[in-house]
Structure formats: C-alpha cells, structure tokens
Amino acid sequence: MKRAIKTHATDVSAIVGLLVLAIVVSVYILKHEGLRFPIFSSSPFTDYVALQTGQAVTPGQGQSVKVSGVQIGTIGGISLQDGTAVAKIEIEPNFRNLIHEDATALLRPRTGLDDMFLELNPGTSPSPVAPEGFTIQMSDSVPDVDLDEVLSELDSDTRGYLDQLINGAGLGLKNRGDELAQVFERFEPTHRDLARLNGAIATRGADLQHLVHELAVLNVALAAKQTQISQMVKASAVVFSDFADEDSSVKQAVADLPGTLQETTHTLGLVRQFANQLGPAAVNLLPAARALPAANSSLTALAIPSAPIIKNQIRPFVVASIPVLHHLEPAAEELAKATPNLATVFTVLNHFLNMLGYYPTSGGGQHGYLWWLAWVDHNARTLFDSQDGNGDFRNLFLQLSCASAAQVAGGVNGGLEEVLLNLTPILTDAGLCPAQAKEDEADYRKYEAGKLNLSKAVDTLATNGLKLPFLPNLSNAK
After folding, report:
1. Beta bridge partners of 454
2. Are 379 and 393 in contact (CB under 8 A)?
3. Is residue 443 classed as helix, strand or coil in its secondary structure?
4. Are 402 and 435 in contact (CB under 8 A)?
5. Of 2, 404, 475, 478, which sits most exposed with the smallest number of CB within 10 A?
6. pLDDT by residue (tens digit) across 298-323?
7. What is the DSSP string of 233-250?
8. 47 CB-contact burial (10 Å; exposed 0-12 / middle 13-18 / buried 19+)
9. What is the pLDDT of residues 388-443, one digit of tens each?
10. Please, are residues 365 and 359 in contact by the beta-carbon 8 Å criterion?
11. Roughly how many angstroms between the first and final C-alpha of the chain, as a whole number?
C-alpha cells in the first residue's frame, strides 16, 4: 500500500488537493446560502414581525432582512397566529442591539418576480432595545402592495378609462418609436427654457424677499408720516365736496337715462336673433378656447426649434432638388413603362428560386434541388481530391469476385506486375478467397516438404490465377 502510494504520489496529491478544494468550495457556498455550522457559527438573534399578508415570503430561499440597504439577517420562517401572518427574522449576533421596540418593517420585492426582502427601520435610541423574541406589531409593518390592489381601488369607469388610455397609447405608439424619440428631441429646447424659467423664478424669490423688506420699510415710513397722510385725507374731502356740487349735472344725466335705456332695449331686440345663435356657438367654442393656450405653447415649442431646420436644411435641400427632379421625370416615365415587365421577371425569378429551395419536410418528400446541388458539388470535389507526384488522380472503386480476380491475375503479362502484386494478398487471404487460399497453402506445404518442385508450384499457382513476377524464368524450369 505504501509502495503504491509512493509510486503514485503525484496522483494521490492531486486527488487530495481536489478533495480539499471541493470541501472549501462547498463550505463557502453553503455559508453564503445561509447554512450555519454549529461549531464555527454562533446562533442568530430571533425576533418576529406581524404582517397583514405573508404573500411570496418563502423561508430558506435567502430572503434578507436589511437596514438602510445593509443585510443584517434573513427571514427564517412564516407562520399563522390568530389569523395574522408572523414572520420569523434571524438577526446576526453582531446586530443584536440595533433593533429597538419602536422599530417598523416594510415588506417589498427586489424584482418583479416577488423575491421579497424585509426593510427594517431599527427605531430610535430613546426606545429600549428589543429583547429576543420581540414581535413588531402589524400596525408598525407595511405589506407589499400588488398592482391589482391599486386597480381595485378604482371604480369601474376609471378602470375602463385607464384601459382605453393604455390601449390607445399602445396603438398610437405602435411602430412609431423613432417618431416618439424625435418628439422628445423637439422638447429639448422646451426643457432648456424651463430650466431658465426655474432659474428666473429662483432669482425672483430673492427679489420677492427684497420686495417684502422694502414694503416693511415703506410701512414704517408711512407710520412716521401720519401728519402728511391726514393732510391728504383732508384734501380728498375737498375733492369729494366738489363732486357733490355737481349734483344738478348728475340729475340731468339720470333724466336722460330712460331714453338711453329705451334705445338700448330696441337695439338689443334687433340683435336677439344673432345672440340666440351666438350663445350656443360660444358654448361649443369653449373647449377649443380652453385648449388654445396649451396648443399655442406646444406650437411655439415646436416652431422655435423647427424654424432653423426648415430654413437652413429643408429649404436649401428642396431648392437644390428641383433641377434633379426635372431630370428624373423622363426616367421615371420610362421606368413606369418597364415596371410591369420587371415585375413579371422578378415574379418568375422568385418562383424559380422558391422551386430550387423547396423542401417538403412532411410526408416523406425528397430533398430540394439546392440540397442535391450541394450533394453533387460535394461528390465532385471528393472525386478529384487526391494527387501524387504525377498530378491529380481520380479515386476508383472496383468490385469483383475471387474467381474473376484469379482470371485477371492469370491473364497478367509482363509490365503489369503491380496488378499481380496487389491481387496476390487478396487471393491468398482465407478470409477473402478461401478456395484459392486453401489450394495455394496446400501447394506451399508440399513445396516445403520437397514433394513439389518449384516449377510445378509455379504452374499450379498460374492455374489458380497466381504468378510470381519476381521469378519470371521459373515457369520454364522443368
């Protein structure tokens, strides 16, 4: 055993190293999956959170408990107590004194797949530290809110309007992403103007503070000028007294007022028919009038950035295109005449290409023409893919029986010894030509025993279709 270990020390070391590495990796993975080792890991600090709903809370899946985005523990379990979902949270020992009795909890998903986590507000320091087993009440926790819950708060008409709005927006924006992007680009000057407006408003804020200060100064100054204000009131009284002296003139105006009212009534009667038409028309024009400010603002925002584009880009392009369009008119007319023929040609070409590429995948049909064309090309390349010092040569496959091979070998004369040398191993192979090989072996055994001279063996081999080209004169030695 020791000798085997010493002989394969490298292999044993590699196996031990891989085993240790596997143990380290397994411990690392299990540690980050929340598995606690009794010897190396201390027990967690356990608290509870009462929730309105435990939907999508799955213990053992690494759902975390966080404070300000920092994970301090995991959700260890979920249970039902008196109709209330109670989640068990396992807090790391080093965060034991972090949670206070006025802590609050917020259950939220990290993504749309409802992989939940519990966000804790640990509370304030004046409140006592929560002991182990403390339960955060349901009044201090907020569950996850699903989209269907939001929609359920809307009445049926509002949901219908929202559905029409979303569907209409989808239909309106279908295949118009580029146009929407261009619209957003058109709003860029508006955004810049709004930024300048916000800056001006911020500046106006400082000016308003200055105005309030100046008004305060003015009020103080007015309080100091009470004498002058009294004099102004007295002067105003004199003015009003003068107006009172004009009482006779006012009476004359009142006397003339009935005739004026009669003329006004007669005139209003004449325009009554016009007023009857004008009233409904004005009412119908109210929505358009209300929409005019927004339309004017949008038109202004669109016209201001569009004016330089139309003036400096589109207009020069149109002017430069007019001569080209004059030259294109005859060509377009000729092209219009040739279009039916071109359409027919391309239709026939399309049908031809479809016929070449057609491959009926169902019903056990044959392969298409393109497949056979590739097959012919492959066979053509395979046919002439070999060469030697004399150049390219084509591969050839011959099939013949042992009797035919023996006849070929028997008819070989001088100059074709290579053919005989290639046929001899075949005819003497018992697995390929057992009859000829058996007779040749018997003759060879007789020759070894001295019972058959070499010239007779040569004649026998020739009778069986075999010759020895490397002994050309032995057939005459008798």
Report:
1. none
2. no
3. helix
4. yes
5. 2
6. 888 888 888 888 888 888 888 888 88
7. HHHHHHHHHHHHTTHHHH
8. buried
9. 666 666 666 677 788 787 777 766 555 455 566 677 777 788 888 888 888 778 87
10. yes
11. 72
Nearest CA to 423 out of 41, 432, 48, 87 is that of 432
For 445-462, how does the pLDDT look when each residue is reduced to its tens digit (9 = 90+)? 877 776 555 555 555 555
**Residue scoring higher pLDDT (50 or 333):** 50
Quick one: which H or E segment has residue 272?
A: helix 272-309
Pairing of strands 135-136, 84-91: unpaired
d(CA 387, CA 325): 63
Residues 6+ apart with CB under 8 A from 461: 440, 443, 467, 468
| Both structure tokens of 51 | 């929730």
CA atoms within 13 A on the CB side of 9: 4
The angle, 0 to 180 degrees and rounded to 10, between the axes of the packed helices 177-186 and 272-309 is 90
Helix ranges (H only) for 358-433 are 369-383, 402-410, 417-427
CA angle at 380 for the pair 379 and 384, rounded to the nearest 5°: 110
Residue 470 pLDDT > 50: no
How far apart are the C-alpha atoms of 465 and 419, rounded to whole Å? 12
Measuring CA to CA, how many Å separate 439 from each of 189, 250, 386, 433, 446? 106, 161, 38, 10, 11
Domain boundaries, the chain: 1-40, 42-147, 284-357, 402-476
Q: What are phi and psi of 128, to 5 degrees?
A: -65, 155
Q: What SS3 class is residue 433?
A: coil
- The pair of three-digit structure tokens given for residue 43, joined into one six-digit string: 């027990």
Give how far Cα 185 sits from Cα of 173, 180, 197, 294, 394, Å: 16, 9, 19, 19, 69
In sequence order, what DSSP letters do the residues of 90-127 get, joined into one string?
EE-GGGTTT-BTT-EEEEEESSTT--EEEEEE---TTS
User: Which tokens hold the place of 336?
Assistant: 């219009």
* 84 within 8 A of 31, measured Cβ to Cβ: no
Per-residue model confidence (pLDDT) at position 393: 64
